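Run: sequence + iron/sulfur cluster -> complex structure.
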Amino acid sequence: MVEVNIKDKLALDTFKPAKESHLKLNQELCRGCKVRCCLFVCPARVYTMDEQSEIHIEFEACLECGTCLIACPHNAIQWNYPQGGFGVQFRYG
Ligand code: SF4
Ligand code: SF4
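>> structure
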């Protein structure tokens, strides 16, 4: 039997990015955040931090799981589903 790991499974998904991000951050709240858990809870690594400790979002890779919204202790994430017809398309379950 062939084993399929999570990376291979994610590679089966397709993404149709919208023009505008469905995720928005309140950077002021992020600057005061000590935990920065968005950096490690997201399975798609959508959140990154630059040398100035600013958080960035690559919304195009979002799996729409909602984890970051629940995990953020400061409610700094404005989260909406992407516009109809855009976003992730899951394949094979
Ligand atoms: S999104 Fe939430 S968890 Fe991430 S840095 Fe901003 S406040 Fe912190
Ligand atoms: S919804 Fe899920 S995949 Fe999308 S940014 Fe949040 S944690 Fe990452």
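>> summary
The radius of gyration is 14 Å. DSSP finds four helices and six strands in the chain.
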